[in-house]
């Protein structure tokens, strides 16, 4: 469950629901724990004001960190679908693997560099305003911004894939071995080992009484582990599909129906052909598509009179592909829109269909054959 809040440099910015949990949780831990220990003798109201401002500065810093990744990726011709901010930070969802190690390195290193620059800016502001005897309501958030950005930059430089440092490590291994999958495999194993180390330290903290910090480390370790493993799978899939276009694996003989086909006849086709949906055509032109879900919306007593044209998803609302589109891009479309098949069109006409099972067959064959 996410909320889009706008676009920056043409990239959608999305807040995951856990971002709001982070806003509350971090504000609370700062206000009742960190700030009173660092700045004694302030009022409870002051601690909460500083805590909320500091948390917002942290979350804005994370956004700028991710935005720098997306900006450099965009300059290097890698598309970014969106930036998602959530409880553990943020992710720039770059929709394709880097073309070579140097691109990987440039996209990765800019994040920590941005965090260090922000730390320097906050530090200069904090020091300058401190000399002018500004209130702690101003100085404390700036000091926290300096410290947290320095920590954010340093943490991301750790050689644990998929952190920025882990991606930089992969770039180095990739350049040395000239094998992306092998480099990713090594970097991923290091990332998983680091994740287990973080979770172990977290458990130790919980046992000795640092419950909040310990739980936080456990969750961060879990996040790094999942990210490392999923990135490894994504790389394997990307390499397996490299060089294939939709036309290479699409089904060319497609069973279609007309706009006048009744719901009852469509149901018979579902049983006969065992497909989950049928393209609707008129004089060779694709006009829509009917799925089981569409038919389920029709009352049973109206199956014999309801036509495909009344219940189909019209062409303008369909997600389509073309014969020359890379399979990786077609698979991304299916995943993004949670659909199992894409009609393949060329010059307006339907020339085939590609399904998720077609793609999985290629992945299975390529990975088994190494």
Written overview of the protein:
With 370 residues, the protein is of the alpha+beta class. The chain folds into 2 domains: 2-157, no CATH class; 246-368, CBS-domain, CATH 3.10.580. It is 62% helix and 15% strand. It contains 13 helices and 9 strands. It has helices at 17-38, 44-75, 101-131, 136-156, 164-177, 180-208, 211-241, 246-249, 263-273, 292-296, 308-311, 327-337, 356-368, and strands at 2-8, 11-16, 80-86, 89-94, 277-282, 285-291, 313-314, 341-346, 349-355. The strands form 3 sheets. A 4-stranded mixed sheet has the order 1-2-3-4. A 3-stranded antiparallel sheet has the order 5-6-7. A hairpin with a 2-residue loop joins strand 1 (2-8) and strand 2. The longest helix has 32 residues, at 44-75. It is elongated. The mean pLDDT is 85.
Question: In a nutshell, what does this entry contain?
Answer:
The protein is of the alpha+beta class and 370 residues long. The chain has helices at 17-38, 44-75, 101-131, 136-156, 164-177, 180-208, 211-241, 246-249, 263-273, 292-296, 308-311, 327-337, 356-368; strands at residues 2-8, 11-16, 80-86, 89-94, 277-282, 285-291, 313-314, 341-346, 349-355. Helices cover 62% and strands 15% of the residues.
Quick tags:
13 helices; alpha+beta
Major sheet description: 4 strands, mixed
Strands, count = 9
pLDDT < 50 stretches: none
Between the first and last Cα atoms, what is the distance in angstroms? 37 Å
Provide the spatial order of strands within the biggest beta sheet: 1-2-3-4
Order of helix and strand elements from N to C terminus: EEHHEEHHHHHHHEEHHEHEEH
| Amount of helix | 55-70%
Mean pLDDT: 85
Give me the number of helical elements: 13
Radius of gyration of CA atoms, rounded to a whole number: 26 Å
**How many distinct domains?**
2
């Amino acid at each position: 469950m996410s909320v889009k809040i706008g676009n920056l440099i043409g990239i959608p910015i999305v807040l995951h629901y856990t971002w709001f949990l982070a806003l509350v949780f971090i504000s609370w831990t700062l206000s009742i724990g960190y700030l009173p220990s660092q700045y004694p003798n302030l009022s409870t109201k002051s601690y909460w004001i500083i805590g909320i401002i500091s948390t917002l500065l942290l979350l804005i810093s994370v956004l700028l960190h991710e935005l720098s990744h997306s900006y450099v990726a965009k300059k290097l011709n890698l598309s970014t679908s969106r930036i998602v901010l959530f409880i553990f930070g943020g992710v720039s969802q770059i929709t394709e693997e880097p073309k070579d190690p140097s691109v990987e390195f440039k996209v990765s290193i800019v994040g920590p560099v941005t965090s260090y620059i922000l730390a320097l800016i906050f530090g200069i502001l904090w020091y300058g305003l401190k000399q002018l005897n500004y209130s702690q309501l101003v100085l404390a958030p700036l000091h926290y911004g300096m410290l947290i950005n320095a920590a954010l930059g340093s943490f991301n430089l750790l050689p644990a894939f998929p952190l920025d440092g882990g991606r930089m490590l992969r770039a180095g291994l990739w350049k040395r071995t000239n094998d992306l999958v092998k480099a990713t495999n090594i970097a991923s194993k290091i990332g998983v080992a680091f994740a287990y180390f973080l979770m172990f330290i977290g458990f130790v903290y919980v046992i000795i009484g640092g419950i909040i910090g310990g739980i936080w480390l456990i969750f961060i370790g879990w996040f790094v582990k999942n990210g490392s493993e999923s990135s490894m799978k994504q790389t394997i899939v990307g390499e397996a599909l490299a060089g294939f276009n939709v036309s290479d694996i699409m089904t060319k003989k497609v069973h279609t129906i007309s706009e006048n086909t009744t719901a009852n006849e469509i149901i018979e086709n579902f049983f006969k052909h065992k497909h989950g949906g049928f393209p609707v055509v008129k004089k060779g032109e694709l006009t829509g598509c009917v799925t089981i879900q569409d038919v389920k919306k029709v009352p049973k007593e109206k199956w014999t009179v309801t036509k495909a044209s009344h219940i189909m998803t019209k062409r303008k609302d369909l997600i389509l592909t073309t014969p020359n589109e890379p399979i990786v891009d077609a698979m991304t479309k299916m995943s993004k829109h949670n659909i199992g098949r894409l009609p393949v069109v060329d010059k307006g006409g339907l020339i085939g269909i590609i399904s998720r099972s077609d793609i999985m067959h290629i992945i299975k064959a390529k990975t088994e054959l190494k």
